[in-house]
Every structure is written in C-alpha cells, then in structure tokens.
Amino acid sequence: MTPTNYIWLCRTPPWCCYTYNPCNSPADLTRTTTTYNLFILFVSTHVQISMATASFINLKASSSSPWIGQRSFNQRPGFSSRSPAARVSVIRAGSYSEELVKTAKTIASPGRGILAIDESNATCGKRLASIGLDNTEVNRQAYRQLLLTTPGLGQYISGSILFEETLFQSTTDGKTMVDCLREQNIVPGIKVDKGLVPLPGSNNESWCQGLDGLASRSAEYYKQGARFAKWRTVVSIPCGPSALAVKEAAWGLARYAAISQDNGLVPIVEPEILLDGDHSIDTTLDVAERVWAEVFYYLAENNVMFEGILLKPSMVTPGADHKEKADPETIAKYTLTMLKRRVPPAVPGIMFLSGGQSEMEATLNLHAMNQSPNPWHVSFSYARALQNSVLKAWQGRPENVEAAQKALLARAKANSLAQLGKYSAEGESDDAKKGMFVKGYTY
C-alpha cells in the first residue's frame, strides 16, 4: 500500500516540493493563486534549496504549477487557511554559528548515538524502585555515575542528555559528570523543558512549558559545560491531534531552538508522536507529516540555523494497540518516506527515540533504516532501550557495577552497529525482546 503523497504548500518548506510524487488526480490541485517566497539555488540540473544562502524569487502556485498533484495545506481538514506573510527571512549567524555546526557534526558521527539519561527525578525514582532502591539523590548519583564512567563508552556514544541535577553533580571521587563525558569525547547535553501541562481549548492534549527564563538558564548550562539541549513535547493521535496542539508544539519547539542557538547550545527538536492508540501505520504517517511540516515552518519563522540542530523523531509505527504489527522493513520504509518529505538535507542528524519499544526492536528498526544511503546521519537517542539491561544487571549493588557497565556497552555497541547497518539480532536475550511501552508514560 502506497501512502498518499500530499504536501501543504503554504506550510511545507520549499525543498520538500521536489521530493513528492503526484497525487491521485488534478482535482487535488489548489485552485487559488497565492504568491510564495521561496529560497532556490540551482546546482547543475538539480534544484537544491538553501535557507541560508539562496536568493528570493516569487513563484505563483496555481493550477498550472509545476508541482503537479500537490494539495495546498489549507485543504487539510482542521487546519487554518491563512497564508504566511511575505517577509525576508534572516538566518542568524551569531558568534556561536561555527561551534553549533561543529557540535552537531560531532554528535552525528558514524557509529555513534546519544545516551539519554535526562529523566526527571520522579521518573528516575521509578527506575530505581524497579530494583528495590529508594529515590534519593545518593542513589540517583550512584546510578548516573555508573553510566557515565563506563570504560569505552565514547566508542559508541557521542552525546549524553542529562537532567539538571546530573549536570551539576560529581562522582564520589570529586570529578564532575561533565568531565567524565569529555574525557571520552562525549558531548554533554541538558534537558531544558519544564514538562507537560494541559492545553486549554484542546482535546485533552498538552503543551510543554519552560520558555520563561530559558535564555538565562541556557547561558548557565553552557558555562557548566553543556553544548546541546533537548526539549520534548508530545502529540497524541487518539486525541486528534487538534490543529491547536500541533501548532503549540511546533511553535514552542521553534522558540526553544532559536533561544538555544543564541546561547551556544545545539537544540534537539523532539515532537514525540506517542505510541498510544490502535491507529494504523498510515495514520501515523499522516500525522507525522502534518507535525513536521508545521515544525519546520516555525523553525524557519524563528530563523533557526538548520545546520546547527538535531532531530529526535518517533519512528513511524502502528499504534501500540493496533491489531497488526509492522516489521522493521515496513517501519523503515514509512519512516524514511516521512523524513524525506519533510526534513531538509541541511539537518546533520536524525537521532530516533525508542518510545517504549523493546531494546531489540529499537535496534532492529534503526538497522533497517541504515540499509540504504540517507541524506542525514540516522542514529539513536535512546533512554529505556539502553538502560533496561543495565538496571537489571546492577540491582543497586556495588559488586555489580562492572557487569552493569558491560551490559550498557553491549547495548551501545548493538546500536552502533545498527547505525552502520551491520547489526545482527543473533544471540539477543529474551529480556532484550520484551517491550517497554507504558500507556500515558511520562518523563
């Protein structure tokens, strides 16, 4: 089954226009004429779009448009028909621009991905409780020290997202957690959002708070050694999602990204599309395209430099309760289709979240996506899919630290091989095959 190929011209970034197949009939074409401002750079016989360097020209999007069979965004149900105001977009090239590009490329390096240990103290407490430990700062510090001092971790891990408490913590011998990472050429990152709260006027959806004071906090995190940031918002398919929730998620991510770059932090852009629901993989694809079209529209509105960001998308899968499960090849096909329609090649890296998949499932899906060349580094930013085996091996006992660190290295190596397209599931344990989806999971 071939997913319907639509784009929304008034929202979708212009580079996407050249990657689509025609829709089903000329009736799908918009019948109104609107002037759109696009960046266009002609290289040889191919058209490449560069938001930072190309010149503006005006194109008419009418029934005679060369973008045959593409539906205007304002024809999508539930979305506004307003057109963006004509403007000259200015891409900021601040004092951090070169550093941002360098940091993003370091994180998006071959065979490496991100270890996410940015769970809130409450969520970390749930992890500790699963092995019979109390949620105390001492126990949280011991667990994070175990992870970040694993010998050889930098061979497979390029960055680690930390919770604020961890960024300012030290090991028992007085070395900062940041220095532990730097010694292994791992870039320290920081979770900067303040969590989800109900979104008034929506269909029981949420929005992410934390923009207030973000600039000053980001500057302080940079001084402490952080070089990239993460902001997680969510989109729920069973709730619609409503146009309001999608816009709120996209705008918040864009403002956060601009503020982060202004303060020297590479922003990870993460609109997580939750697994909750019984929807099909085609529904997930449709929602993902809507969400990422909106996200990149507002990233451009906020003059975010694409070469200095990373993405943390959900894989395109059926809902957790859907009667038919998709194999890794199908998930890879749908996910890469969505990304190629929505994400410009200027973005250095796609760092997938695991979202409750089993350790092995997350690795197999990543492996499938790296069986063919991609315009970006396609890798991982896993939390549970890297930590589950570690907790079970550790059990909170000092004598088990070495075994737990070996478990972390094993999972990191497996995902490193998947990033290179060389992973084999042979020899995986039964525990690695167990799903970790939790309905309504919070971080």
From TrEMBL:
Location(s) in or outside the cell: Plastid, Chloroplast
UniProt xrefs under CDD domains: FBP_aldolase_I_a
Reaction(s) the record says it catalyses: beta-D-fructose 1,6-bisphosphate = D-glyceraldehyde 3-phosphate + dihydroxyacetone phosphate
Family affiliation: Belongs to the class I fructose-bisphosphate aldolase family.
Name this polypeptide is given: Fructose-bisphosphate aldolase
EC identifiers of the protein: 4.1.2.13
Keyword field: Chloroplast, Glycolysis, Lyase, Plastid, Schiff base
Broad EC category: lyase
InterPro entries according to UniProt: Aldolase_I_AS (IPR029768), Aldolase_TIM (IPR013785), FBA_I (IPR000741)
GO MF term list: fructose-bisphosphate aldolase activity
GO terms of biological process kind: glycolytic process
Pathway(s) served: Carbohydrate degradation; glycolysis; D-glyceraldehyde 3-phosphate and glycerone phosphate from D-glucose: step 4/4
Entry GO CC: chloroplast
Gene3D superfamilies listed in its UniProt record: Aldolase class I
